[in-house]
Design goal:
Radius of gyration: 30 Å
Oligomer: single chain
Number of domains: 1
Strand order of the largest sheet: 3-2-5-6
């Protein structure tokens, strides 16, 4: 029979018990997948290049993500995508789901975006815009107002 009253025997038992409890800790895995139609668009999330769609990324914190989708022959899309926390991962319950419950919670999100083909402007439209810009650049700026505040740019 083991005598637990001696101090030398309590420490290994306590460490073993602590290690056993540590192995029962919970875990939360968060991941989002971005798909485009047609596939192959370059995904830039929060100013970081992720790769060609479809692509997945793990994340730690919930909140808004800025997605920029670029594909040749299609318009570049900028999307602010909110990623809201599920009911089991809020301020009151996250300590339990992250640390105490011996279960791995998985939160997987999928976002699908339709890429819009770019429209080619007509040559006449481009020439007209270029001529109007040339006219604006060649005309002198309007005169400043006089007086003390006019000299300051007001």
């Amino acid at each position: 029979m083991i005598d637990l009253r001696t101090p030398g025997r309590m420490l290994p038992l306590a460490l073993l018990l602590l290690a056993g409890l540590g192995s029962l800790s919970g875990c939360v895995e968060r991941r989002y997948t971005v798909r485009t139609n047609p596939p192959g668009a370059l995904l830039v999330a929060n100013d970081e290049e992720i790769g060609a769609t479809p692509t997945s990324r793990s994340f730690t914190y919930y909140g808004d993500r800025k997605f920029v989708l670029m594909l040749d022959g299609h318009e570049t899309q900028t999307v602010i995508q909110p990623i809201k926390a599920p009911w089991w991962d809020n301020y009151l319950t996250e300590f339990f789901t992250e640390n105490l419950i011996p279960y791995t919670f998985r939160d997987e999100r999928e976002y699908v975006y339709q890429m819009v083909p770019s429209s080619e402007p007509s040559v006449d439209h481009l020439l007209e815009n270029g001529q109007s810009l040339r006219t604006q650049a060649q005309s002198p700026p309007p005169p400043r107002k006089g007086g003390f505040f006019g000299n300051l740019g007001f």
